[in-house]
Amino acid sequence: MHTCLSCGAEYDDAAGVVRRCADCGSRTLSDDELRVWENIRDDLAHETFVAVRVLDGPADRAMLSAILEDEGVPFVVHGGDAFGNALSGSGGVLLVAEDAETKARGLLAQYDAAVVPGDFAEQ
Ligand SMILES: [Zn+2]
What we know:
The chain is α+β, with helices and mostly antiparallel strands. The chain has two domains: 1-34, no CATH class; 47-118, Alpha-Beta Plaits. The chain is 39% helix and 22% strand. It has helices at residues 31-46, 58-71, 101-114, 119-122; strands spanning 2-4, 10-11, 28-30, 49-54, 75-78, 82-85, 93-97. A three-stranded antiparallel sheet has the order 2-1-3. The chain has a three-stranded antiparallel sheet with strand order 4-7-5, with helices on one face. The longest helix is centred in the first third of the chain and has 16 residues, at 31-46. The protein is elongated. The site of zinc ion has 8 residues, from loops. Residues 4, 6-7, 9, 21, 23-24, 26 line the site of zinc ion.
């Protein structure tokens, strides 16, 4: 079974796996993927996380994860690897605990300043 994330339409895998909803064109998720999705959604419902960044891809995700871990900022990445790129159109969405948002945004600003194009050529 695959289920559409947007409209909830269900597709029986026996008739061929449907990865994109015929009704609305959204990504469909397998039962396993749907469970992961629901867990993430439930976690987010219990804690207050705010989206601070759409990640560019796996490298961006790895770098920022390392920085936030070092600084003790609670964070989650929503989408990205677990679902491929379809959910967010990117490497995922970075969310941080609301009470650490200011600190996280400061770290992101430092990160952006450190990776502006041109730096690599000078190093
Ligand atoms: Zn749909």
